[in-house]
Every structure is written in C-alpha cells, then in structure tokens.
Write a structure and sequence with these properties.
The chain has 119 residues and is α+β, with helices and mostly antiparallel strands. The chain is built from four helices and five strands, in the order H-H-H-E-E-E-E-E-H.
C-alpha cells in the first residue's frame, strides 16, 4: 500500500494523540483556573491544591478512606495474593498481596459525564 506525501503512515494517529493530550488540563492550568474562579493568587491556589492532596493522602493512609463530597472517594484497598501467568513463558507465578489505592467517582459525577441510558 502506498501512502501519499500528504499523509505518511502514522501521521493521522499522531495528530489524534496530540489533540487528545492538548485537551487535558495541566497542573498549571488547573491552578490558574482555581485562582481566577475564586479570586486567589496563583501561589495561594497552588498551596490550596497541594494541601488538599496531602490531606487526601494522609487520611486515606490513616483511616483507609478520604471522601471529597461531590467528586468521589479515595480508598485504601488490600489485594490478596494470587496466582498469575508470565505472558512471555506461560509459567505460573505467585503475585504477592499488596496494598493499593482506588478512587471511586461519586454517582453525580458518573451520571454527568456518562448519563445512564434509559431502558
């Protein structure tokens, strides 16, 4: 299959990825938005955001749960040890138990992002 010089292989995919990444907000953009929406300086908004993150981590670590009303909850979860398979060799391996964190979105957020279909 021949490609024209206008559209070499992978160029369309690259444009889609670049566009997707351009649509996501960076930390600086989030800080600027919080600052302008709440009449704060960028420095104060960044400090607020950092303190919220550190509070969430500390509470999830201490109590196993941090709830941010209207957004969701951060929960500490224990995963059990289990048997897995090495995809390269097919050999069975033991995956050890570990502690991880999960974030569960609030129902309001889920429904506003992806409304449930009516039956």
């Amino acid at each position: 299959m021949r490609h024209s010089s206008k559209n070499p292989p992978g160029q369309t995919f690259h444009k889609e990825i670049t566009q997707f990444m351009a649509d996501r907000m960076t930390q600086s953009q989030v800080v600027k938005h919080l600052a302008s929406a709440n009449g704060l300086s960028n420095k104060a908004a960044k400090a607020y955001l950092e303190s919220l993150v550190s509070l969430a981590v500390a509470q999830a670590k201490k109590n196993g749960l941090f709830v941010l009303p209207g957004l969701g909850r951060l929960k500490r979860v224990q995963r059990k040890a289990r048997m897995g398979r090495n995809p390269a060799t097919g050999q069975e391996i033991k995956i050890p138990a570990k502690t991880t964190a999960k974030f569960y979105l609030a129902k309001v957020v889920k429904d506003s992002i992806a409304p449930q279909k009516k039956k």
